[in-house]
Every structure is written in structure tokens, then in C-alpha cells.
């Protein structure tokens, strides 16, 4: 009798009963599904006992790695005492207060003063957008309701967060979206949306946001929301000076500056926060993912004292901030986050992300010897390798070729899990990644790119064309 956990049986059960997020069902029918049953450090194991290095950290987030019993014990001990209780008016729990206090301390250089808990990154962004709009109503400027984002941005899947997002494919099937959202250019300097050289692109893209604010009317704009590194949009690392200029634009027009740190928060960039990596002091910050390293779902929104004070001073006439999630401040999730933060700090994983990230990026840059590798970039343990049909013209492959998918599948066969974003290979491994594991990721991806290059007729790697665009 066939075990229900055999790979073929798992696939059939998945296809029969489970509707998975962002999943092409016909892709699964052709290529199968990996059922992960166990994890340790940067490695996971499937039902057949096969080992993989998880070069994507689950989904940008297993920062402390898999199998951390310290987090499991913290959640278990909390659940034995109090699994959950509402944080709505008049009630609280101690882990949520302790975590809020801890986060405010961590975020002191960024000027954050209060924490509002959510259940996910999408909920965090949704909360931040509501805060921004109500902030201006409370200040007597209800006409300030527009939110500026960037093309290629990913901010979540709830309607407000999706409306802020700039990934077209994620939006079209759900229109009409929430009104009041505008999108400017992403600082995608490899393919500058303004047609400029990479050296001129970044600051020009920031200045274009100023022109959009002027066109819309500064008195109508509530906030600009930006990821420090645009994750799902292709791991777009901003050029130096871009984010500082974008913050200056917000200050110039007295527009709130929201940093979406759902991916970049808690060490991913080699600093505790993307804001710190680029020397920023936003008005609002959003978090999830690395806050608990995925052990229990939890999100958070941090605000400055000035933002919070507007709500506090207006409460008697306007009432409370009428927004909340059932599981806001969930005590077991907060216990997981506290244990997670202790591991990050005690094991110096933020510093490890910086050090091993430099090694990983240096290794990935050697892939530029392959004619199909057009661009390699990264920061901390967050990196991209973009595959192109012609490196000189930066011409992409036709979407139907699925080159990124093919490279990722070949890498998986060799024991490395990565995530293709179209023909951009994205990397965000656990922050506990070792140098040896980084080298193994590079070796496997190198072989996978070479194998697929031959399959599609590009032959052996070219050694005369070193360097990326």
C-alpha cells in the first residue's frame, strides 16, 4: 500500500485539496512539489530525507534559521500559561508589552516611539496606510489622502496594501482598487525607467517623486511608502543617495515617509534595519517576517512620537484609532519574537549577514562569466542574479521560455532552493548561513546556469565577457 506521504501521493493530495498562494497549479502538475518536513540551521529536508540549502529563507524570513528550540520552548511555555487574550480596550498581556518596549529600544536610532501589533506584513502595511490618512484628518487636512508608491513595489495582498503595490500582475484581476494611490519610478538602474545611465538614474528617480507630488498637489498627498530594497519586484537595491533624497523630498513637502521593512527588517541587509543601513529616520515603519523568523505569524507597525502624539491629543474629540486585528499582540507570537531577537543579538547574526553576505555576493558576481547573466547585485544576505537573452542590449528572454524557472528547478535537483522572480533569481538565506554554505549555493547556481544555458543554445560559459551590467 502506498504511503500518503510518498512524493507522488503528496502531490495528488495537494492537487486534490489544497489551493496554495501564488501557485501555478499546472506548474505543480508538471514539476511536482517538495514536501518539507524538517529543518536545521540553513537546511531543510523533504519527506524522502533529501537535504537542501534554503537559499531563500522560506520566503525572505527565516532569519535565525530552522529548528531553534529556544523559540519553540518560549512559545510552549507561554501557551501553557496564556495562549491568547484580546488586547482590545482595557486588556493586555505581558509579552506584548515587553516586545513593544524591546522594539522601541531597538528602533531608537530611527526615532520610533510606539508599536502597534498586527498578524502579517500585509496587515502592517494596511495599518500604516490607515494611520497616515487619519493622521492628516486629525491635523485638519482631510484633503491629504493620496499615497505615493513605486512601480515594482510589493506591499502585500489586502486591498489597501495591494493598491500601494506596483507589481501589475498582482493588481489587474482585482480592479478597481482603492482610490488615491499613485506610482512613481523604481530606482531600477539596470533598466532605468527614465532612460538614463545607471549613474544618473537613482537620484533622478527620487526627484521624479517630487514632480509627482507637485503635479498631484502637495496638499493632497498623505505619505510616500517605500521598501528599502524592493523585494518581490526583483530585489532592486537602491543606489547610494537615492533613499536619502527620497526622504528629503518627503520632508520638503511635509509628506509622511513610510518605510516598509517587512523583508529588510531584523538583519537582512547586514544592519538591524534598512533604515539604519541607509541612515534614515522615517515617520512610520512596517515589520513582519524576520520579527519571529516565521515561527509564529506576527507583524508590527512603529511610529514616531510626533505621529503618535497627534492621535493622543485628538482622542477626546475624535475617539480612538478605530482599527485592529483580533490577534494583535498575540502573547505566544510575542514570546516567539522575544526569543528570536535574543538569538539575533547573542549570536551576532546581523554581523554574520554582513560578513557572509559579502562572500555570497562576491561568489554570485563570478556568474557574470555566463553570457546569460546580465546583472548581479545585493546587500547583506539579500541578492539578485538577472538572466538576459543579450547582455549588451539587456534584452530579456521571452516569458514563455521560463529560463528563471528552469534554473531554479535545476538548482533544486542539486540541493539548493532559490526563488525565481521571472528571470531574476532571488537569494535571502537564513542569517546563520556559513561561508561554506554560501560557497555551495554559488557552485550549484553556477552549474544550474551553465546547464540551462546549454539547453537553450547558449553553449559553454564565455570567459571573455566577465563583468555584469
What characteristics describe this protein?
single chain; about 475 residues; alpha/beta; 4-stranded mixed beta sheet; about 40% helix
- Secondary-structure-derived class: alpha/beta
- Poorly predicted regions are 461-469
Q: What is the count of β-strands? A: 15
**Mean pLDDT score:** 96
Roughly how many Å apart are the termini? 55 Å
The gross shape turns out to be: globular
Percent of residues in β-strands: 5-15%
Radius of gyration: 22 Å
Strand order of the largest sheet: 4-10-9-8-7-5-6
Largest sheet: 7 strands, mixed
The ordered string of helix (H) and strand (E) elements is HHEEEHHHEHEHEHEHEHEEHHHEEHEEEH
Summarize the structure.
The protein is an alpha/beta fold and 469 residues long. The chain has helices at residues 7-17, 25-31, 57-60, 69-81, 94-106, 121-138, 159-164, 198-216, 242-252, 274-277, 305-318, 331-346, 349-365, 403-413, 435-455; strands spanning 36-40, 43-46, 51-54, 112-118, 146-150, 181-184, 221-226, 256-260, 284-287, 299-304, 373-378, 383-387, 416-417, 419-421, 424-427.
Amino acid at each position: 500500500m502506498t504511503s500518503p506521504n510518498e512524493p507522488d501521493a503528496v502531490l495528488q493530495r495537494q492537487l486534490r485539496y489544497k489551493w496554495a498562494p501564488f501557485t501555478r497549479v499546472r506548474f505543480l502538475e508538471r514539476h511536482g512539489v517538495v514536501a518539507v518536513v524538517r529543518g536545521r540551521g540553513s537546511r531543510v529536508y523533504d519527506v524522502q530525507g533529501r537535504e537542501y540549502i534554503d537559499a531563500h529563507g522560506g520566503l525572505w524570513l527565516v532569519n535565525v534559521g530552522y529548528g531553534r528550540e529556544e523559540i519553540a520552548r518560549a512559545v510552549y511555555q507561554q501557551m501553557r500559561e496564556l495562549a491568547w487574550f484580546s488586547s482590545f480596550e482595557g486588556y493586555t498581556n505581558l509579552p506584548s508589552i515587553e516586545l513593544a518596549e524591546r522594539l522601541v529600544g531597538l528602533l531608537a536610532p530611527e526615532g520610533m516611539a510606539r508599536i502597534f501589533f498586527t498578524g502579517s506584513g500585509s496587515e502592517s502595511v494596511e495599518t500604516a496606510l490607515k494611520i497616515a490618512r487619519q493622521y492628516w484628518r486629525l491635523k485638519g487636512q482631510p484633503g491629504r489622502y493620496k499615497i505615493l508608491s513605486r512601480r515594482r513595489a510589493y506591499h502585500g495582498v489586502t486591498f489597501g496594501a495591494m493598491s500601494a503595490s506596483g507589481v501589475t500582475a498582482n493588481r489587474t484581476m482585482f480592479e478597481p482598487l482603492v482610490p488615491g494611490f499613485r506610482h512613481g519610478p523604481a530606482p531600477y538602474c539596470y533598466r532605468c525607467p527614465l532612460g538614463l545611465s545607471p549613474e544618473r538614474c537613482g537620484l533622478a528617480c527620487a526627484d521624479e517623486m517630487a514632480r509627482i507630488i507637485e503635479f498631484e498637489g502637495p496638499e493632497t498627498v498623505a505619505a510616500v511608502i517605500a521598501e528599502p530594497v524592493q523585494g518581490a519586484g526583483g530585489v532592486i537595491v537602491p543606489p547610494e543617495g537615492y533613499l536619502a533624497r527620497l526622504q528629503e523630498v518627503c520632508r520638503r513637502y511635509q509628506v509622511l515617509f513610510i518605510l516598509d521593512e517587512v523583508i529588510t527588517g531584523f538583519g537582512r541587509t547586514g544592519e538591524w534595519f534598512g533604515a539604519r543601513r541607509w541612515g534614515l529616520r522615517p515617520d512610520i515603519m512596517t515589520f513582519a517576517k524576520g520579527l519571529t523568523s516565521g515561527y509564529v505569524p506576527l507583524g508590527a507597525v512603529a511610529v514616531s512620537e510626533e505621529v503618535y502624539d497627534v492621535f493622543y491629543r485628538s482622542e477626546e474629540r475624535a475617539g480612538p484609532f478605530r482599527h485592529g486585528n483580533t490577534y494583535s499582540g498575540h502573547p505566544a507570537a510575542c514570546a516567539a519574537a522575544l526569543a528570536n531577537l535574543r538569538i539575533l543579538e547573542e549570536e551576532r547574526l546581523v554581523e554574520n549577514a554582513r560578513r557572509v553576505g559579502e562572500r555570497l555576493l562576491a561568489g554570485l558576481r563570478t556568474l557574470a562569466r555566463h553570457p546569460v547573466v546580465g546583472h548581479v547585485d545585493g546587500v547583506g544576505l539579500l541578492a539578485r542574479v538577472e538572466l538576459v537573452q543579450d547582455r549588451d542590449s539587456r534584452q530579456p528572454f521571452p516569458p514563455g521560455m521560463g529560463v528563471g524557472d528552469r534554473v531554479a528547478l535545476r538548482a533544486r535537483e542539486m540541493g539548493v532552493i532559490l526563488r525565481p522572480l521571472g528571470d531574476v533569481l532571488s537569494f535571502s538565506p537564513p542569517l546563520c548561513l556559513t561561508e561554506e554554505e554560501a560557497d555551495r549555493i554559488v557552485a550549484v547556481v553556477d552549474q544550474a546556469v551553465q546547464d540551462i544555458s546549454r539547453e537553450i543554445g547558449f553553449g559553454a560559459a564565455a570567459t571573455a565577457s566577465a563583468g555584469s551590467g
